[in-house]
Structures are given as structure tokens and as C-alpha cells.
């Protein structure tokens, strides 16, 4: 597991949503937000966001720290997600992750 900064940015709103969701887990502080590319549609990637214990990060995974939230970027997704941002908000299709 490599610790780095600024591969993916996360808005304060999104971070707060993740921390709130994580708070219902036993041992909440041990959980990180994991980000993983799961496919693509032309130039756009589809991805998965999920809570999972930080201890399961592999040596090639990258870990970012955003205040009290760790974000794990799965090793084979790092280059695809470089410069991406995670946000939560509303739009024409309702509220959700952006």
C-alpha cells in the first residue's frame, strides 16, 4: 500500500456523506472509501465506490487521506482515475454520486 496525495479529489460534501455512512459500521474508523474502475464506455469509465476495511489494501493500492477518511484507489485503477473527482449532488436525474 502506497500513501499518496491528489490522485483523486473528494468534495467536502462527498466526504461528509461517506463519513456519515461509515459511522454505522462497527469499528467505523478502520473503514476506507475504496474506488475501483469496473469498465468503460468510450472515453468514460464506470467505477465502484464502497466501504471496506483499510487493512485489506494491497501493496500496489494507493491510499489518500482526507482528514479522517482514507481513500483506497485499487492498483489497476490508479492511472485511469488520476485527476478524477468524487462529489455528491443533485442533477436532472436526482441526487447521487458525481
Q: What does this molecule look like?
A:
- The chain has two helices and nine strands.
- With 98 residues, it is α/β, with parallel strands linked by helices.
- The longest helix has 11 residues, at 12-22.
- 19% of the residues are buried.
- It has helices at residues 12-22, 78-81, and strands at 2-3, 8-10, 31-41, 44-53, 62-66, 69-73, 84-86, 88-91, 94-97.
- It is globular.
- Strand arrangement, major sheet: 1-5-6-3-4
The helix/strand series, from N terminus to C terminus, equals: EEHEEEEHEEE
> What's the tally of helices?
2
Question: What is the strand tally?
Answer: 9
- Structural class call reads alpha/beta
- What's the oligomerization state? single chain
Give the biggest sheet: 5 strands, mixed
Strand content: over 45%
Would you identify the regions where 5 or more consecutive residues have pLDDT less than 50?
none
Shape annotation: globular
Q: Please give the share of residues in helix.
A: 10-25%
Task: Please state the CA-atom Rg, rounded to the nearest Å.
Answer: 13 Å
Distance between the termini: 26 Å
Taking all residues together, what is the mean pLDDT? 90
Amino acid at each position: 500500500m502506497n500513501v499518496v496525495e491528489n490522485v483523486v479529489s473528494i468534495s467536502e460534501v462527498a466526504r461528509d456523506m461517506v463519513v456519515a455512512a461509515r459511522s454505522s459500521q462497527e469499528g467505523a474508523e478502520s473503514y476506507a472509501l475504496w474506488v475501483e474502475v469496473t469498465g468503460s464506455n468510450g472515453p468514460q469509465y464506470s467505477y465502484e465506490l464502497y466501504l471496506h476495511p483499510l487493512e485489506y489494501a494491497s501493496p500496489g493500492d494507493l491510499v489518500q487521506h482526507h482528514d479522517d477518511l482514507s481513500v483506497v484507489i485499487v492498483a489497476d485503477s490508479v492511472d485511469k482515475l488520476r485527476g478524477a473527482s468524487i462529489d455528491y449532488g443533485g442533477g436532472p436525474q436526482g441526487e447521487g454520486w458525481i
